[in-house]
Amino acid sequence: MKTVLITGCSSGYGLETARHFHAQGWKVVATMRTPREDLLPRSERLRVLSLDVTRPERIAAVLEESGPIDALVNNAGIGIMGAFEATPMATTREVFETNTFAVMAMTQAVLPQLRARRSGVVVNVTSSATLARMPLVAVYTASKMAIEGFTASLALELEAFNVRAKLVEPGYCPTSRFTSNTGSRMDGLIPEAYAPFAERAFAAFAQPAAVTTESDVAEVVWRAVNDATGQLRFPAGADAVALAQAR
Q1: CATH number of the domain at 3-246, out of 3.10.20.310, 3.90.1150.10, 3.90.550.10, 3.40.50.720?
Q2: Poorest-confidence range of 62-76, 81-95, 172-186, 231-245?
């Protein structure tokens, strides 16, 4: 029986992905900053562990507690929307700490066991913001673009050890907690000079031609984990698929 470790499982893509893998018969290690046992089914094949992905000591402790894993899904992330001109560099660093450096740290911590066993896969969840230009998400897009380049190069490094690296690129999911997860980071990020532009952008966001659901992403993560074709990028959701095809 295979084991997957998924970060950011308290809501959205991570929670649905944990449910999906469990339903497919895998052992699941679902990690959250603040563990909630009531979100997932009680099962001997499912463990909920506390993990702040920005803390190296917690990464090490969770991997020790998890035992051997076959797949790592780096899903945890934070959102931010606003004019870049008004975004403090401290906020930019905070976004990169979670969306970029923590993904790299998790991956680096898992690779020795995958390489030694000569099997396994790392799936990094980015965003359809990497597929087309989108307004007011310059910092967020940059943090995800970095993981796109990181994963593409990493995949080449790991081929000799039969270890795979994949990207899942979700589209816009109105039912996710992206906006609420931005928290106070968005305060003051739309200066008066940018207000007319922001109003038009938010109006467009409110009327999308197509959207992504949490189950779309869970199913595509499952496909990426089990893919043996060498495909690197997996858009998830009708809008993300359309953007990928238009590139």
Answers
A1: 3.40.50.720
A2: 172-186
Three-state secondary-structure class, residue 28:
strand
| Given 13, 140, 172, 194, the catalytic residue | 140
Residues 6+ apart with CB under 8 A from 200: none
Quick check: is 13 catalytic? no
Taking alpha carbons only, the member of 119, 10, 39 closest to residue 72 is 119
Q: At CA 192, angle to CA 95 and CA 133, rounded to 5?
A: 50
Burial class (CB in 10 A: 0-12, 13-18, 19+), 193: exposed
pTM over 0.90: yes
In tens, the pLDDT along 176-203 reads 766 555 556 677 899 999 999 999 999 9
pLDDT at 178: 61
